[in-house]
Design a protein that fits this description.
7 helices; binds magnesium ion; alpha+beta; binds adenosine-5'-triphosphate
C-alpha cells in the first residue's frame, strides 16, 4: 500500500500507513522558531529526534505511561497510533526560561518552587496563546476527567525525564507535550502524542548551563546542531560515527 501524506507540519510530516488506526511520523531537518518567523535547516536533526523520541517514548511505555509510539521503521520515520489530537500544548516548567521570563518579567534560571504546568491553545494563526484550565473546560477542548489525566501524566513524565536527563548530566528546564484520545477496549483513553526531543525540551548542561536544545537556533547562539548531537550521543541512541555515516549515505 502506498503511503499518502496527510499533514505537513513545521518539523514533521504525517503519512497514512497500511493500518487505519496507525500513522507514519516522518522527522524533517527543518528548524523553525517564533511560530515560523525564523527558519533554517539543521542537517540530521530529524534523524536525531526520531531516535531520541523512540528511546524516551519506549521508556515511558515501560512505566505504563500510554503514548503513541509503536515502532521506528527507518532513520527518519516511526509508526504511531493515530490519535484525535487535543488542541492544547502542555508546557511543564522546572526552571524559568523562554516565554515565562518575558511574560512575567522574572529572571532566567530561577528554580521554581514546584513544577509549573501551563496550557497554550494550539492555533498557529493566534500564535498559540496562553490559556487556563477554565478555557479548556468552557470551550470543551477536554473534559474535567481528561484534563486531570493530562496533568497527572505530564507530572509523571516530568519526574521520569528530569531523572533520566540528570543521569547524563543534563538539566530538564522545561518541555512541551501534546496529548490525544484513542479507543482501547471500549474505553476512550488519553495518550501522549507528538515527540520528545531537543526541539521541544530546554536542556542545559548540569556543570556549565550550556544550552543543548533548540534555543541555540532560536537565539543565534552558534553551533545550532551541537545540542541535538550532544544529547543523542550522551543518551547513546547514536554514536558520532554512525551519525556521520547515515548523513553521508543520505546525500
Ligand atoms: N499520534 C498522532 N496522531 C495524530 N496526529 C498527531 C499524532 N502525533 C502528533 N500529531 C500531529 O502531527 C503534527 C506533527 O507535525 P509538526 O510537529 O511538524 O506540526 P507543527 O508544525 O508543530 O504544527 P502543529 O501546530 O499542528 O503542531 C502536529 O500537528 C501534531 O499535533
Ligand atoms: Mg509540532
Amino acid at each position: 500500500m502506498k503511503k499518502k501524506i496527510i499533514y505537513e507540519g513545521k518539523a514533521k510530516k504525517i503519512f497514512s500507513s497500511a493500518k487505519p488506526n496507525e500513522l507514519i511520523q516522518h522527522f524533517k531537518d527543518d528548524a523553525t522558531a517564533f511560530n515560523n518567523k525564523k527558519k533554517s535547516i539543521i542537517p540530521g536533526k530529524g534523524i536525531i529526534n526520531n531516535f531520541i523520541s523512540e528511546l524516551l517514548m519506549t521508556k515511558l511505555s515501560e512505566l505504563n505511561i500510554p503514548n503513541h509510539f509503536i515502532k521506528r521503521i527507518n532513520m527518519r520515520e516511526q509508526i504511531i497510533y493515530k490519535l484525535d489530537i487535543i488542541p492544547i500544548e502542555v508546557v511543564i516548567r522546572n526552571v524559568s526560561s523562554g516565554s515565562i521570563v518575558k511574560r512575567l518579567g522574572i529572571d532566567e534560571g530561577k528554580v521554581l518552587s514546584k513544577p509549573l504546568v501551563e496550557f497554550f491553545y494550539k492555533k498557529d494563526e493566534l500564535d498559540d496563546p496562553l490559556i487556563s484550565d477554565e478555557h479548556i473546560l468552557n470551550f470543551g477542548w477536554a473534559t474535567e476527567h481528561e484534563l486531570e489525566e493530562i496533568i497527572s501524566l505530564s507530572l509523571r513524565i516530568n519526574d521520569f525525564l528530569s531523572g533520566y536527563f540528570m543521569s547524563i548530566n543534563v538539566r530538564l528546564i522545561d518541555f512541551k507535550l501534546e496529548f490525544g484520545r484513542m479507543w482501547k477496549n471500549d474505553e476512550l483513553i488519553i495518550m501522549l502524542a507528538d515527540e520528545i526531543s531537543p526541539d521541544n525540551c530546554r536542556l542545559w548542561d548540569t556543570n556549565t548551563n550550556k544550552k543543548l536544545d533548540k534555543d541555540r537556533f532560536r537565539h543565534n547562539l552558534g553551533d545550532e546542531d551541537v545540542g541535538y548531537k550532544e544529547i543523542a550521543f550522551r543518551l547513546g541512541v547514536l554514536s558520532e560515527k554512525e551519525f556521520k555515516k547515515v548523513l553521508k549515505n543520505e546525500i
